[in-house]
Specification:
The chain has 5 helices and 4 strands; from the N terminus they run H-H-H-E-E-H-E-E-H. By secondary structure, the chain is mainly alpha-helical.
Length: 162
């Protein structure tokens, strides 16, 4: 294949055939031809973009699937070996710690039981989510009236009332 000949043939066709045809057309035909060419170019660019994007997604999710497959196989082999180890050695498998101890610690806030706290604006009891938010974010809003409670001010308020 000789690329030079192909380019020369396209150039000759463009100069001879297309330009002559284009100039013979009325003005609205010329305008519509330009709009058509621009639309075809936009369509071609869009099509190429989505094809490349699709190929990238295909490769990404294929690799992600292989990763999760290998991870699952590895975890299964690990659990199998761990179970075999505890079976052969005679040791008992350590139990996971229950979260009851953590709940009891979180329910005590500087020696004050947080299960019985109330909003001083509307009088409604603090929910568990409100207590979790004030302990983690240092700020919380009452779900009923919208009053903001700050952890430092809240501690001062608790020490004054108790």
């Amino acid at each position: 294949m000789d690329w030079r000949n192909i380019v020369e043939n396209i150039y000759l066709w463009y100069n001879n055939e297309f330009i002559e045809w284009y100039l013979v057309q009325p003005i609205y035909g010329q305008i519509l031809t330009i709009i058509g060419i621009i639309a075809l170019l936009a369509l071609a660019v869009t099509l190429i973009y989505y094809i490349i994007k699709g190929i990238a997604y295909l490769i990404f999710y294929t690799l992600k699937g292989f990763y999760y497959l290998l991870k699952g196989i590895g975890l299964g082999i690990f659990k199998l070996c761990e179970g075999f180890y505890y079976l052969v050695s005679g040791e008992s498998k350590p139990k996971k710690q229950t979260e009851n101890n953590n709940v009891h610690i979180e329910n005590q806030f500087n020696g004050i039981n947080t299960n019985i706290l109330f909003c001083n604006e509307c009088g409604k009891r603090f929910s568990e989510k409100m207590m979790e938010k004030i302990l983690s974010n240092r700020n919380v809003f009452c779900v009923n009236c919208g009053k903001e409670f700050n952890l430092i001010e809240f501690q001062k308020l608790l020490t004054l009332t108790h």
